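Researcher: I'd like a candidate sequence for this fold, 196 residues long. If you have to choose between options at a position, lean toward the conservative one.
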C-alpha cells in the first residue's frame, strides 16, 4: 500500500463518478451490503448493539448501489432492503449510504428509485418506508408523504408512503441497473416542476 505521507499531504479517497443501483446478485455484493449496514446502523448510529439483521432479512430483497472503477463494479456504496408480507404492500428500510458519498445525493436517489420501482414492478400497490426524522425532508423531495410517527429501537422515525405514480414499474435487474446520476437528475427535475 502506498504511504500517502511520503508527499506530506493526505490522499483524498476515490469517489466513483459512475454509480448504478441493482438487486444484489453476487455473493460479494451481499457481504458488502451487510457490512455497510453494520457500519452505519451499529457502529456509526448505534441503533443496534451487535447487528441490525432481523427476521425481515430472510424475506427481503437487498438492493445495492455499486461504485465503478475502470468500467467494472468494485464497491457497494449504498443499500436498502425491500419486502412484502402480503404481495401488495411493500416496505423499504435500512437504507444506508457510505459516508464518502452522502453529500452527492446520487446514491440515495438511485436507491429510492430502484427500490420503489422494483417493488412496483412486482405488484406493489402501496410502498411504505421507515425513515429517520433527519431524513424526512429528503424523502419528501423524492415523492414520499408522512403517514405516521413511529419509534424504531428508541429512535424517532416516520412511516412514509411513496407516490407510486412517480415510480414506473421497472425491476433494477443486474443486467439493466438504474444509473445513479441519471436518476438524481430526473428526480431533481421532477421536484422542480411539481414544486411550482
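Model: Candidate sequence:
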Amino acid at each position: 500500500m502506498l504511504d500517502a505521507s511520503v508527499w506530506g499531504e493526505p490522499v483524498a479517497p476515490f469517489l466513483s463518478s459512475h454509480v448504478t443501483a441493482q438487486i444484489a446478485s453476487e455473493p460479494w455484493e451481499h457481504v458488502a451490503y451487510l457490512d455497510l449496514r453494520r457500519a452505519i446502523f451499529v457502529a456509526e448510529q448505534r441503533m443496534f448493539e451487535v447487528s441490525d439483521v432481523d427476521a425481515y432479512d430472510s424475506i427481503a430483497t437487498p438492493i445495492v448501489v455499486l461504485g465503478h472503477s475502470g468500467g467494472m463494479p468494485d464497491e457497494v456504496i449504498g443499500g436498502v432492503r425491500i419486502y412484502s408480507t402480503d404481495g401488495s404492500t411493500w416496505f423499504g428500510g435500512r437504507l444506508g449510504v457510505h459516508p464518502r458519498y452522502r453529500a452527492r445525493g446520487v446514491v440515495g436517489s438511485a436507491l429510492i428509485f430502484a427500490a420503489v420501482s422494483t417493488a412496483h414492478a412486482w405488484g406493489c400497490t402501496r410502498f411504505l418506508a421507515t425513515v429517520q426524522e433527519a431524513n424526512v425532508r429528503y424523502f419528501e423531495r423524492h415523492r414520499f408523504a408522512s403517514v405516521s410517527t413511529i419509534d424504531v429501537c428508541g429512535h424517532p422515525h416516520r412511516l412514509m408512503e411513496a407516490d407510486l405514480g412517480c415510480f414506473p414499474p421497472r425491476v433494477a435487474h443486474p443486467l439493466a441497473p438504474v444509473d445513479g446520476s441519471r436518476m438524481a437528475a430526473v428526480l431533481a427535475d421532477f421536484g422542480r416542476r411539481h414544486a411550482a
